[in-house]
Amino acid sequence: KALLELSVIQNRLPARCRIGPGLPETCRHRALVLGAGPVGCLAAMAFQNLGLQTFVAARHPAPNPKAQLITELGAAYLSTGEQTPSQIAARIGNIDILLEATGSPTAGFEFLPLLGGNGIFIFTGVPGPSKDLELDAGALMRKLVLGNQVVLGTVNAPKRAFDDGLRNLSAFLQRWPSTLRSLITRRVPVDRFAEVLGEGDFTEIKTVLTF
Q1: Close Cβ partners of 140 (under 8 Å, ≥ 6 residues apart)
Q2: 123-163: per-residue pLDDT in tens?
Q3: Strand order from edge to edge, sheet including 150-153
Q4: Is 186 helix (H, G, I), strand (E, B) or coil?
C-alpha cells in the first residue's frame, strides 16, 4: 500500500521524475529505509526493483547477516551504531523517500528532519505510548512546508496492494531467488513457540511457526 500511495503522491512532481524504472539519471530517486527486519528488507527490494538508489540503516555494524542480505540486493547498508543520522544523510545526499520500518518513534523523528526537498516520509511502525521525545516543532513545520514534503502513515491495504505484492514477490524471486528465501531465517514447530518469544537474536529476520 505504501508503494501505491507513493506513486499517487509523486504525481505532484514533474512527470519525467515520477517514481518508476527507466528514469533519467537526473531524476534517479534516493530511498532510505530505516530498519532491516522483514518489512525493511522487502521495502529495499521494492525500491531496488523500481530503479531507486537504495540505502538501509540499521543499528548493528556490518558484517552481519542483514547487512549481507542488503548488499546482495545491490543496496547500501549503513549502521546507526557507527554513524549519526546527520552523517548518514550527508553520505546519501537529498533523500527523496524515507521509509520507517523500525516501530521506534525515536528513530523516526531523528531522521524526519533530514528528509530532502519534495521528499516523502512513510511511517509503517506502530509504537506503544511514549513521551520520551523532544522536538523543535517550529523548525520541523517550517522545513515540511518550505521543502514541499509529505509525511505519510500507511495501514489497511486494499486488495490491489495484495495483488501487487504477489507480483512483486514473483519479480523478487526471479531477480534474487536465494536472497528472498533468506528473509525467513528459520522455521520452528508450533509446539516450540516459546523459543521464539522475547528479544531473540538480532541476526534473525523472520521466524515462522509451522503447523
Answers
A1: 112, 113
A2: 999 888 877 778 889 999 999 999 999 999 999 999 999 99
A3: 76-79, 53-58, 30-34, 97-100, 120-123, 150-153
A4: strand
Q: What is the DSSP letter of 83?
A: S
pLDDT tens, position by position, 35-50: 999 999 999 999 999 9
Of 60, 108, 59, 56, which is closest to residue 77 (Cα–Cα)? 56
The beta strand positions in the chain, using DSSP E, are 30-34, 53-58, 76-79, 97-100, 120-123, 150-153, 184-189, 206-210
Cell of 101: 520500518
CA distance 54 to 76: 7
Cell representation of residue 111: 531522521
CA distance linking residue 190 with residue 78, whole number of Å: 35
**How many residues are there in the chain?**
211
CA distances in angstroms from 25 to 28, 52, 94, 137, 140, listed in the order given = 5, 10, 14, 35, 30
